[in-house]
Structures are given as C-alpha cells and as structure tokens.
TrEMBL record, chain A:
<keyword id="KW-0132">Cell division</keyword>
<dbReference type="GO" id="GO:0016887">
    <property type="term" value="F:ATP hydrolysis activity"/>
</dbReference>
<feature type="domain" description="ABC transporter">
    <location>
        <begin position="2"/>
        <end position="227"/>
    </location>
</feature>
<dbReference type="GO" id="GO:0051301">
    <property type="term" value="P:cell division"/>
</dbReference>
<keyword id="KW-0131">Cell cycle</keyword>
<dbReference type="InterPro" id="IPR015854">
    <property type="entry name" value="ABC_transpr_LolD-like"/>
</dbReference>
<dbReference type="InterPro" id="IPR003593">
    <property type="entry name" value="AAA+_ATPase"/>
</dbReference>
<comment type="subunit">
    <text>Homodimer. Forms a membrane-associated complex with FtsX.</text>
</comment>
<dbReference type="InterPro" id="IPR005286">
    <property type="entry name" value="Cell_div_FtsE"/>
</dbReference>
Automatic annotation (TrEMBL), chain B:
<feature type="transmembrane region" description="Helical">
    <location>
        <begin position="221"/>
        <end position="245"/>
    </location>
</feature>
<keyword id="KW-0472">Membrane</keyword>
<dbReference type="GO" id="GO:0051301">
    <property type="term" value="P:cell division"/>
</dbReference>
<keyword id="KW-0131">Cell cycle</keyword>
<keyword id="KW-0812">Transmembrane</keyword>
<keyword id="KW-0132">Cell division</keyword>
<dbReference type="Pfam" id="PF02687">
    <property type="entry name" value="FtsX"/>
</dbReference>
<feature type="transmembrane region" description="Helical">
    <location>
        <begin position="265"/>
        <end position="294"/>
    </location>
</feature>
<dbReference type="InterPro" id="IPR047929">
    <property type="entry name" value="FtsX_actino"/>
</dbReference>
Length: 229, 300
C-alpha cells in the first residue's frame, strides 16, 4: 500500500536532510507506529505520503501511485484516498459536528443524498451518534478528535495517517481514541500513526518504525517505544 | 460541483470581510464610473463628429457690400466666386445664404437663448457661401486659393473648429481614462488584498479542503466568485452613479454645448449603452485579478 524507496528529502534551510535514504514498505491493512524524537523526520514522512512535499531523491508509492510524479491535477485524487488526522483537530468552529464531517464530502462534490446517508453512519462508528448538531466548542477534546477522525474516514480512504492524534488528550481519552483507530484499522484501512506516546505504543504492540536524524534506525513487527523495555 | 455549497461559501466570505468588501465595491464603482464617463465622452464625440461632418466644411463670408447689395448672389463678385468654387476640384456643393437666411439659421440655432436672439440683427450678419468639400481636398487649400479675393470678408475653416472641439473632447476623454486607470489600479490592489485576506481568514477551511482532496478549482472558486460578485456590484453602483451625475451635474454643465447643437445631451440611453460594458469589464478584471492572486500569492 505504501512504499518508500531510498527516499531523501532536503530542505534548503536545513543543513542536514530531513529524511536520508529511507526505505519502508507498509502492506494493506497494516497498523504502523512512526516514532522518534522531534526533528527525526516523522512529519516529513507523512507529508511525502500526502504529496504536501516531494522527495529530493527516491520514490514514494501510495496505492500504486508514484506520488512524486503525480501530475498536479491528480493530487486531489490521491488525497481522497489518504485521510489524515492531526493533534490540533482542525475543526471548523462555525459548523456543527455533522457539518464538519459533511464538509469533507461537500468539497469533493459528493451528492447531498450520499452525504445524508454516509455522515450519520460514520458518526455512529466513531461514537458520536446523537451529537451531530453540537458545535465543536461544546465537545470535549476526545470528542473533537473523534469528529476529526470521522471527517478523515468518511470518504473511506485506503490509508489513514495520524500525526500525534493523542498529543492533546489525557491518557484515558487517548486509549479511547486508539480503540477507535484500531476499529478503523480492522475495516482494512492501512493506518500510519506518528506519536510520542510511549504507553500507547507499548500497550498495542504493533509494528514500530523508528526514525532518528532522518534515517530508519528500527523497524520492528511488534515493537515497543524504547528498545529494551 | 455543488452550487449551493459554493454560493454559501461566497456569501460567508463576503460577510466575514465586510469592510474590505465595501471598500472594494466603492473603489471599483468609482473607477468604473470614470471609465463609463470616458466611454460616454467617446460616444458623444463620435456623434458630434457625425453631425458636424454634415455641416459646411468651409464658410466664405462675403463683405458688407455684397451682403447688403446682392441678396441672390446674382452679380459679380459673388456670382463669379460661386461659379469658381463650384468648379474647383474637390468641392461637392456650394450654397449661398444671404443675410436673412443666415439670420434665420442663427435664430433657429439659438432658439433656446432668447437673450442672444434679441441681440442679433440681420444687418449685423454677413451673407455667406457654404462650401461642402469631398475627401480629396483640404479646407486649408480652398482657404488659400480664395483668401483676399474681391467680395470676400473672411473665410472660416469649419473643419478647424470641429477638429479643435474634437481635440478638446478627446483631452477630456483621455483625462477621464487616465484617472479611471489609476482608480482601476487601486481597485486591482484592493481586490488582490481582499482575496489574500479572505484566504487567510479561511485558511483552516482551505487547508482541510486541500487535505481531503478538493480540487484546486473547487477550492479557489468561492474566492474568485467573491471578487467577481464585488466587481459586478461595483459596476451596478457605477451605473447608478452615472445616472446621478447625469441628473445632478452633466445636464447643467453641457447645456451651453447642447443648446449650440455642438453636442447632444447625455441620455439614459447613453448610460444604458455603457452599463453592460462596465459589468463585463468588472467581471473580467476582478476574475482575472482574483485568479492571478490565488495562483501567485495564495497556497490553496
């Protein structure tokens, strides 16, 4: 589903590369934790998958698309297949829960009857049925992140990328969010999650790819956050 | 594409930036009013040229002796001059107007100015030969050929007058267009700024749109439409302003010129003629400025 082949990414403003000859392959339906300290290249990794950035060298393949070679007009098609969730939720405060999730479908031109059918289904999946008419400010942090996940998943992407999705949440809420992400992963959606959260990585025992100074220093099939824990 | 979604985004965008939107509409309206004014001047100049083209090209005023004693132009030097003019190359027609005919003509022309009519007496006016020229001869050549001849008081090159007046009107038009261009430049900058501000205010929405796979066109369209809607409102306001200016100032200012039959008055038909042009110009300029701004300055 995802393949990075000898990928390097250099920014003009940085002396060393953000990613340095990284090769990683993720199968369909896998759940992968991307860990490493700040500045290790996790965000660049995710940005390359979304074609927010293009690699300086190497190939990035997502769902059989060579992302770096993708013509500009085809990039939206890629992004419809790759959902993303962020630490800061990025919800629209002037729209209801339903409106926020529906927004992702409206802007890609989905018909209204589809939106009316699909949005309640996904709200139920993330545990927000009955809260469709609430505004984001009326929700807890965990609920807001659920809305963000619903928005990222409503178009049934092949890959869901999560950049520190529990970074703003307390441990209990984080656990709930991880259960939700696991449930989504069980639907066959490939999940790549960048995180600093030791306890989550340690408790879930999923594949762990560790980055340091832009290089993959560890790729464990059922890993933990720190080596030797 | 969902029209309801796009239109609601446009309305929200205009509402959020209401002060900038009003500034954009006003600036556009002022620049388009000037542009519309310039276009009306062009239209008036064309009409004036057309109407003055029908007037005599050269008027040969006879001296007092001929004017007083030869009302039919039957004797020399008047008859000789007429015959010579009729045979001169490039002359299309020659018409003799005696003092009474000249007086009648003046009375008709100054029908709206009774004070002027009272001052004019037939005896104060010279008889004249009205000469219409073809394209292959200049009024100056005729003037040169006949100037100083017996029986002639003076020769008036009417085309010179027409040229002077057209030049003055063209100066007015150029000045109006220059100010309109400066205003339009200010309007362009305002449109560009407003779009940038609007995009900044909605960066969360556009960021999400980009990430969930909305096409560039879908993301940019509301901003483009916002600019175009403001431009079109500006052009409608400009049409209204032109009507107000016509009623409040232009009709009064142009009265001497219209009374003297030099120009026709600015009518609502003139305003109606330029209104669709203003709408088209406003849509095109605001759309193009919006498009370029989004491409060059805004990451969407």
């Amino acid at each position: 589903m995802i393949r990075l082949e000898h990928v390097s990414k250099t920014y003009k403003t940085l002396a060393r590369p953000a990613l340095d000859d990284v090769s990683v392959s993720v199968d369909k339906g896998e759940f992968v934790f991307l860990i490493g300290p700040s500045g290790s290249g996790k965000s660049t990794f995710l940005q390359l998958l979304l074609r927010e950035e293009v690699p300086t060298r190497g190939r990035v393949i997502v769902a059989d698309w060579n992302v770096a070679k993708l013509p500009r007009r085809r990039v939206p098609k890629l992004r419809q297949r790759v959902g993303c969730v962020f630490q800061d939720f990025r919800l629209l405060n002037n729209k209801t829960v339903f409106g926020n999730v529906a927004f992702a479908l409206e802007v890609i031109g989905k018909p209204r009857h589809t939106i009316r059918k699909v949005v309640p289904e996904v709200l139920q999946l993330v545990g927000l049925d009955g809260k469709a008419d609430r505004m984001p400010v009326e929700l807890s942090g965990g609920e807001q992140q659920r809305v963000a996940i619903a928005r990222a998943f409503v178009n049934r992407p092949l890959v869901l990328m999560c950049d520190e999705p529990t970074g703003n949440l307390d441990p209990d809420t984080s656990q709930d969010i991880m259960l939700l992400l696991e449930r989504i992963n069980r639907t066959g959606t490939t999940l790549v999650m960048a995180t600093h959260d030791h306890s989550i990585v340690d408790s879930m025992r999923r594949r762990v790819v560790e980055l340091s100074h832009g290089q993959v220093i560890r790729d464990d099939a059922r890993g933990v956050y720190g080596v030797g824990r | 594409m969902r029209a309801s979604f796009v239109s609601s985004e446009v309305v929200n965008g205009l509402r959020r930036n209401v002060s900038m939107t009003i500034a954009m509409i006003l600036t556009t309206a002022v620049s388009l009013t000037l542009l519309g004014g310039g276009l009306i001047v062009v239209r008036k100049v064309d009409q004036a040229q057309e109407s003055l083209r029908n007037a005599a090209d050269v008027v040969v005023y006879m001296n007092e002796n001929v004017s007083a004693n030869d009302p039919e132009c039957a004797n020399d030097p008047c008859a000789g001059l007429r015959s010579e003019l009729e045979q001169a190359s490039g002359v299309q027609s020659v018409q003799y107007l005696n003092r009474q005919a000249i007086f009648d003509r003046a009375t008709e022309e100054f029908s709206n100015q009774p004070q002027l009519q009272e001052l004019v007496r037939p005896k104060a006016l010279p008889a004249a030969l009205w000469v219409e020229l073809g394209d292959n001869v200049t009024p100056q050549a005729v003037k040169k050929q006949f100037e100083g001849r017996a029986g002639i008081g003076s020769i008036n090159d009417q085309s010179q007058f027409v040229r002077n007046m057209v030049n003055k009107l063209n100066d007015v038009r150029d000045g109006t267009f220059l100010i309109a261009a400066l205003q339009a430049f200010a309007a362009l900058l305002l449109i560009s700024n407003t779009i940038q501000l609007s995009a900044f205010n909605r960066r969360t929405e556009t960021g999400i749109m980009r990430l969930v796979g909305a096409s560039r066109w879908y993301t940019q369209l509301p901003f483009l439409l916002e600019a175009m809607v403001s431009g079109i409102i500006g052009s409608v306001a400009a049409t209204g302003l032109l009507m107000v200016l016509k009623e409040a100032f232009l009709d009064g200012l142009m009265k001497p010129l219209t009374n003297a039959n030099l120009l026709t008055a600015v009518s609502y038909a003139d305003v109606a003629f330029v209104a669709p042009i203003l709408v088209l110009v406003a849509s095109a300029i605001s759309g193009l400025t919006g498009y370029l701004t989004l491409r060059l300055y805004v990451r969407i």
